[in-house]
User: Fold this.
Amino acid sequence: MGIDIGGATIVKTAGITLNTSLVFNAAGQATANAAPGYTGYKSGGTVYYSGISGWEITASVWQSGLNTTNGVFTCPVTGLYAMGYNGIHKGGSNIPTGLNTYGYSAFCKNGVMVYWVHWNQATSATAGFTSWNTGGCSALFSCVAGDTLALFINRSPTSLAPDSQSQNFGLYPDAHHAVWCKLVG
Amino acid sequence: MGFDVGGVTLTSPGTTLSMDSGATNWMKVDANGILTRPQTPFMRGQLTGRGSPYSAIPLLVTADVNVGGCWNNTTGTWTCPVAGYYMVTGGNIMGSASSYGYFYIQKNGTDVIFTHWNHNASWHYVTMSGIIQCAAGDTLRYVIKGQSPASAGAYGVGGHCMYSIALMA
Assistant:
């Protein structure tokens, strides 16, 4: 039993299914089958700053619309997208000689970086080390279809010659961090 | 005028499109196209009265809001009612003593994502968030482990730590 409106259907299942993809169960709890977005992280490596396009999300927990070679997400439809990351910025005893213990990260829409966050490690509980700095931020983006979103690690608001990468160190890889993005409205 | 689809009604009271099961509203779209779904599973809670530091496994978060009844205060576990994508957030301040450790989100008892703190005699704010794909019946929980000293953990007094889970879609 259902209703057909020019090919879009409203069908009684356990609850209600709208246009085959928005499904309400018997308690009125809804899920949408298409899920533009991702949750993932960069796997492995010893250089903990972004490549030229963004922070590489080489290991995705789930993803739709993400380029896993460069971490660039392409919005499939116009809408509101939530994006965030959390992780630990490099510290311990492994910062190479000559590199700073502070840095910046930023979200990037269509290649333009916005919404920076900054970290600057303090003394750790282990004598002689610089602490791991817990970092992250989140933001909402209004996008049109085809817009791109990415995370950059260790890119400062003010250009540092030749590039902030050469002075600073970044985000520890693998499941120690997570980056996520999803269409929310 | 409205439609009855197997007991679920689609009506248009005023300028609103409404989908209801009996007296329970499932979805509403107002005249401006603003969509609300009040049955969306959601919890928000804190470590009220847990003392400090606090690092039980799992963290026994007390829910202030628990739409759908998915969060169990006694076991510190969220059970997913449907397959979907769940937004999970957690924010703690770790105790003032010198310490280090790890804060995890687990799915079905397995670590999914985590973060780390390491500080010397200062409060350390540790937050984490992620969107976890789950099947119906999967469980989510918060865990602090690998800490040193063993007594290290979150400040569980008052509302200093906060946790939330919601079905996104």
